[in-house]
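User: Sequence recovery, please. Input:
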């Protein structure tokens, strides 16, 4: 599809370029032709005037005698001009054809990347939705065929189905949030907010989840008066995602630390855990949608769809920030966030 569109766009570029080139060629040819004719008239007038001054011919001779440049010479000059213009336009056609094809590719590349990304998103989302739906359908079909299904078994089935529905709801909520952050500026209203308050709100939301695994969350605020321009709810979501990941992939009875500080006019925060870590081959991919490292799946059995860090990256980009990751297998992970700070 894009090859055909690229060829069509190239053809339009060429059509426009050649129209302009031919138009100016005709103008140049017309102007130079008129200059030749003007030169011929002036030259003939100059020669006749000089001839009349030097030789004083009789009046009848003047009427019979006219000086003109060789018509064949003028015709040859015009033909050479036409030939040169044809050569120039042919060169323009060849060169502009290559440039037009290149520029058409550059023009369509963002659209192509966007469509491919949307197709991947739809494919991945469909796959993630199909799995729990298939599980629900299979469980209910098996139960329907079981004539000896007891009330206790039915309740257990309903409870499991409710869990699957909750997972589907969580997935749909994440997909909606991700779609929102895909829009320019995410339709967010920025305001002056305090980084300490944002982080503390996120910590308060995660603490109940951390208590289930007996994980402590330690906070360290170097400066409680760090102001940034941003959308408070989305930034709270950002730190909730980072803290939730830290808790999710940390062993029981361990600890997670979150710090904030300012440096070189920027507001910075880091989330550190002592969990299973991320392998080097997985690090470049962790912000991709629906990506989950095999280590996390096999060792921790952590529930999730791999959308959290993708959402976090979108939030960071909308706030013109930077997120860095340092991790080692079986040692832990440090996520560092850098955001523009409002100067006092």
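Assistant: Recovered sequence (344 residues):
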């Amino acid at each position: 599809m894009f090859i055909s569109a690229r060829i069509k766009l190239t053809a339009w570029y060429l059509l426009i370029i050649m129209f302009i080139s031919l138009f100016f060629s005709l103008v140049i040819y017309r102007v130079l032709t008129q200059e030749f004719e003007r030169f011929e008239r002036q030259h003939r007038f100059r020669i006749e005037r000089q001839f009349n001054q030097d030789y004083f011919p009789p009046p009848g001779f003047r009427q019979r005698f006219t000086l003109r440049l060789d018509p064949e010479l003028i015709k040859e000059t015009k033909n050479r001009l036409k030939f040169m213009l044809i050569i120039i336009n042919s060169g323009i056609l060849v060169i502009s054809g290559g440039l037009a094809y290149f520029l058409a590719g550059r023009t369509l590349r963002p659209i192509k990347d966007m469509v491919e990304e949307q197709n991947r998103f739809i494919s991945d989302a469909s796959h993630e939705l199909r799995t729990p739906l298939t599980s629900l359908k299979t469980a209910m079909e098996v139960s329907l065929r079981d004539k000896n299904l007891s009330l206790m078994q039915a309740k257990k089935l309903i409870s499991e189905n409710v869990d699957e529905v909750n997972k589907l709801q969580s997935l749909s909520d994440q997909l909606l949030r991700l779609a929102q952050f895909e829009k320019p500026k995410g339709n967010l209203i920025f305001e002056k907010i305090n980084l300490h308050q944002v982080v503390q709100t996120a910590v308060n939301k995660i603490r109940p989840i951390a208590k289930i695994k007996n994980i402590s969350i330690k906070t360290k605020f170097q400066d409680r008066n760090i102001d940034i321009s941003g959308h408070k709810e989305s930034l709270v979501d950002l730190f909730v995602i980072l803290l939730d990941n830290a808790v999710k992939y940390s062993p029981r009875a361990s600890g997670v630390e979150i710090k904030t500080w300012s440096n070189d006019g920027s507001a910075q925060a880091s989330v550190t855990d002592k969990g299973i870590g991320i392998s080097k081959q997985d690090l470049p991919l962790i912000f991709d949608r629906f990506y989950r490292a095999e280590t996390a799946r096999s060792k921790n059995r952590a529930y999730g769809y791999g959308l959290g860090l993708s959402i976090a990256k979108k939030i960071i980009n909308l706030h013109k920030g930077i997120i860095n990751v340092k991790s080692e297998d079986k040692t832990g992970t440090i996520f560092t966030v850098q955001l523009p700070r409002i100067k006092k």
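The beta strands are 191-194, 216-221, 227-230, 255-263, 266-273, 322-328, 332-340.
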